[in-house]
Amino acid sequence: MLDLRGRSRLAPIIDPIASLLGKMRLTPTIITVLGLLVTIVGGVLIASGRYVAGAAVSAAGSLLDALDGPLARMQGTASDKGAFIDTMSDRFGEVAVLAGLAFSLRTDETGLMLCVFALAGSLLIPYVRSKAESWGAEGRGGWMGRAERVILVLLGVGLAGFGLPVLHGMLWLFVTLTMFTVGQRIRNTWRQLD
What we know:
82% of the residues lie in helices and 0% in strands. It is mainly α. It has a single domain (2-193), classed as CDP-alcohol phosphotransferase transmembrane (TM) domain (Four Helix Bundle (Hemerythrin (Met), subunit A)). Helix 1 packs across helix 4 (68-75) and helix 7 runs antiparallel to helix 8. The radius of gyration is 17 Å and the shape is globular.
């Protein structure tokens, strides 16, 4: 939802930053990889229990990742290879954050299992889209696009870092909404394939 609507609303903020990065002779691929590395550092901080710092660093990595597409369009270098690197980077970033959270909750059986289901949902959502598009169907849609997933998990982790007991509630909500989104995408794809 936010992935589709948010881009046009954020363009007045993102485009000048992307333009500045272009003047610094940075390529979209460099920005993608840098964003992933920053997100992985955030995941490591989350794994070590430093939730506020981990959420902030991971959010910075996700924001960097939002710049590669506009930069590619400005430079006229948008390509299938770039899109592939970007989507792989997105998946690795989600894995880093949720695996870090799972590691930090390794002694909490409920929290650990919720992290496993959250990670499964996060990976199934883009998988259903990819599979649908391979058959010529529209695989987008649903409540929990990547932006919503990133915002929810990093908000929950950040608030937990301030001592609020929100992790289990955030994870239950995350799992419920991601699995519902998987169901939405499967249903929509099934209807299109008829």
